[in-house]
Amino acid sequence: MSLRAKLVAGAQGLRELYVLPRTLWVAFAIYVPLGFINVSSIKLYLPLLRSLVLCDVPVSDEVYSGSLHCGDRNLVISISLQQEAWLVALKLFCRMISGPFLGALCDYHGRKPVLMLSISGITAASWLMMLACRQTLIPPIWTLSFALALQGCTTAFNLCFKSMVADLLDPQHRAKGFVVLNHTDVFSRGITLCFVIWIQKVQFMRFDLLCMLAGLLGLLILLFCHLCLEETLVKKAEPEALAALPGLRHLLSELRAPYQLLWSSAFLQIRLAQMLLNQLGNGWESIQDSFMISILGWGPGDWDLFNVPISSFREIWGMVTSGFMVQWAQQPGNSYWFMQANLLFGSAMLIIQNFGPFGAIFLLVPRCFLALCPGDGGADAAFFSSQFPREAQASANGLLIAVDNIVSGVSRWLYARFLFDPAARGCLAMMPLSARTIFTLLSNALCWYAWWRYGHPNKSRKED
């Protein structure tokens, strides 16, 4: 096929990519402002906490401390960082506990009720944050802790939207639904990051107004969801034995469903182990900026100055090539061999990055090469979704959320406490990179095995 024919096919594929059921477009329309509230609240935790710190040092116009009530910048930074660590850990813990249960409720009672519960949770959290900024009778950190716990216990956006894609599209067409969901996420995050950067650049300090606006927007999203979004899950008749159970026992039976699924699915066990190892490797990102400053002598923010353009190019390139990749990856053989090649290339780039202490080029050049690789066209998400029936999609994703949240916190602590030494040089400074390489290579090996065991095209033909 000539280059021109490939470009025409890619453009045609990109147009066909967005041919989706109306209900999915309504869901994606909800996703954009909902993602805006969610991501902006996460990005603005620290500035909000800084604005509430109290001390005896008066605020000065000459030195920006970030607080409305304290002029000691070092004290403000120290206290706000400790409070942020507590709040993030609390929210992750609540998400870890609630993820599987919300997934089970989503599979039994439908996507729309659980999504509305999630919207209600983040809306109520926004109003509580506004209350924390407006009054001092109750210590603000208490109010914020309750707000973040409430948000963590009710957040189930991703598993609801992914389950909707699985409900409305056949397995062979789900890849494009997951790709468009990713495009929506990139668009929402892009708008949010621009807003967050602007808020911090103008040194806007009235976070009570921002929280109030977020609460009002949440109410509008909740109303739109109630009026315009249709339920996507076609419920099956319950077994007579389950329907005959009393209310409490019936509920407990529903909540046990994710763990029964985990016990019965070897694929899900492999996937959870793969995510655990991958998240242990991703803990490197929490100390990446500190590594560049202490080991390589870069200035604060220099890493983002180089990394953000690379990451942005990768996102844009993935969106541009997604139309062609979705069509190409619909063939089981294509998606299988692409994932194998992608794992091999990613592993090679990972090994090269181990030499980062000897020069930033060892970190940046592999990232540039990885950015040139097209996305998988939703193949991995569709592969995972294809292993479960529609009524078990949310339960499976809920377990992934639980593992993701607990291991994210543990991996950050592991790298900061044991693996990273700002005073190390040479080979000793390679320790966090070597740990990341070991964890990620083990994760890649499990991913390779899962694709070989459950997604190999020859096995699929034999089963057919």
From TrEMBL:
What's in the keyword line of the UniProt record? Membrane, Transmembrane, Transmembrane helix, Transport
What Gene3D superfamilies would the database entry show?
MFS general substrate transporter like domains
A Pfam family assignment: MFS_1
Segments crossing the lipid bilayer: 24-46, 114-132, 144-165, 177-199, 205-229, 343-365, 433-452
Q: Does the keyword Translocase apply?
A: no
Topology relative to the membrane = Multi-pass membrane protein
Q: Where in the cell is it found?
A: Membrane
The UniProt entry, under InterPro entries, shows:
MFS (IPR011701), MFS_trans_sf (IPR036259)
- One cellular component term from this protein's GO annotations in UniProt: membrane
Primary location: membrane
Q: Which is one GO molecular function term here?
A: transmembrane transporter activity
Q: Under what name is this protein listed?
A: Solute carrier family 40 protein
This protein's species is: Cladocopium goreaui
Output the lineage of the source organism. Answer: Eukaryota, Sar, Alveolata, Dinophyceae, Suessiales
